[in-house]
Amino acid sequence: MSDFVSSFWSHYVSAITIISILACFLLAWVTSRAKVPPAVDGVVESTGHVWDENLRELNNPLPRWWLYLFYITCVFGVGYLILYPGLGTFKGTLNWTQNGQYDDEVAKMDEVTAPLFAGYMAQDIAEVAKDPEAQAMGERLFLTYCSQCHGSDARGSRSFPNLSDNDWLGAGDPEYIKHTVLNGRNAVMPAMAAAIGNTPADVEAMANYVLSLSDSRHDAILAAKAKPKFAVCAACHGADGKGVAAVGAPNLTDDTWLYGGSRKSIEDAISNGFNNRMPSFGNLLDEGKAHVLAAYIWSLSNSDESTTQTN
Ligand code: HEC
Ligand code: HEC
């Protein structure tokens, strides 16, 4: 209704609704008052309608219970339209709204869970990770908010990092995980082809050097040729290629790849760079929930049972 500038349609729809209810009421009333001829010798007058050769429609009065139910329905309809929104733009005397009800329910739920989260907030994230109830909550939060991108098993996929393998783009400690949830992250690597010579051969040589860092299959001659040029990469990935967590530049020596470790994908990385973004969840999750969620994520690769995976 709020889509319309004038109030014409609101009045129009309201009028049709009210007239319909009155018409129903009148119909029931008029029909119930119509005189029905009494039965003669137990035979009720027929309306003259006959189906299937001998099925006749009789002219019986409406049953009382049915009639009263019909009146009650009309009264209920009117009462409902007075209390709740239903007549055009009229808001109803209870001022009820769907959003209002939702907000009330959320507020009630928060009241119940606030002490629970306050309790967890008072503990270290590593401590929270030992609480089975917190873990169950963390898993539910993960499946609701994170699994679309990181996968329901948290193992990620191309460009969405694996969160279960204790291999991190950033610091990887519990506070880092919580900070990432609340603030998101944006990893930027500029296109680097121009900085290393700009020909496809230069890019191919550098990709071979990157592969050599993790002892993956590579052409040693090409790798040696590119090695001195790695200085321009070192600013972010470190001179030894082991990555700099503060920049979010990953370790290139561990054979764990966010974008796949083929020579082709590494050449793409060098030629095109990245602008990879994780949205921030600060407006959807309060700090308590982020705390519990971080404990869950951290525990995936740091609990006693979890085995450290390398890819
Ligand atoms: C819309 C997709 C998307 C959603 C939803 C999402 N993430 Fe991410 N997340 C990413 C991307 C992309 C990155 C990698 C950013 C980068 O390259 O720095 C990332 C990175 C991370 C990292 C850092 C990983 C590392 O190796 O340092 C953590 C921790 C993380 N996400 C946790 C979460 C949690 C917890 C949730 C749920 C609240 C979540 N993410 C929801 C896309 C998403
Ligand atoms: C300005 C900083 C910066 C520079 C300079 C830089 N990188 Fe990166 N690089 C990054 C960041 C940040 C990422 C992570 C992108 C992401 O998380 O999505 C990355 C990712 C990569 C990846 C993908 C790793 C994977 O796990 O799939 C490769 C390969 C790579 N860089 C190679 C290089 C090479 C080779 C150079 C030099 C020619 C270079 N980078 C220069 C910041 C940089």
From TrEMBL:
Pfam family, one: FixP_N
Binding-site positions, heme c 1: 146, 149-150, 278
Summary of subunit composition and partner proteins: Component of the cbb3-type cytochrome c oxidase.
Pathway(s) per entry: Energy metabolism; oxidative phosphorylation
Cofactor: heme c
Protein family (similarity comment): Belongs to the CcoP / FixP family.
Binding site for heme c 2: 189, 233, 236-237
Gene Ontology cellular component list: plasma membrane
Location in or out of the cell: Cell inner membrane
Transmembrane segments: 12-30, 65-84
Function: C-type cytochrome. Part of the cbb3-type cytochrome c oxidase complex.
One term of GO molecular function: heme binding
One GO term of the biological process aspect: oxidative phosphorylation
Listed PROSITE patterns: CYTC
Limits of the Cytochrome c domain: 133-301
Lineage: Bacteria, Pseudomonadati, Pseudomonadota, Gammaproteobacteria, Chromatiales
Name of the protein in its database record: Cbb3-type cytochrome c oxidase subunit
Keyword list, A-Z: Cell inner membrane, Cell membrane, Electron transport, Heme, Hydrogen ion transport, Ion transport, Iron, Membrane, Metal-binding, Oxidoreductase, Repeat, Respiratory chain, Transmembrane, Transmembrane helix, Transport
Cofactor note: Binds 2 heme C groups per subunit.
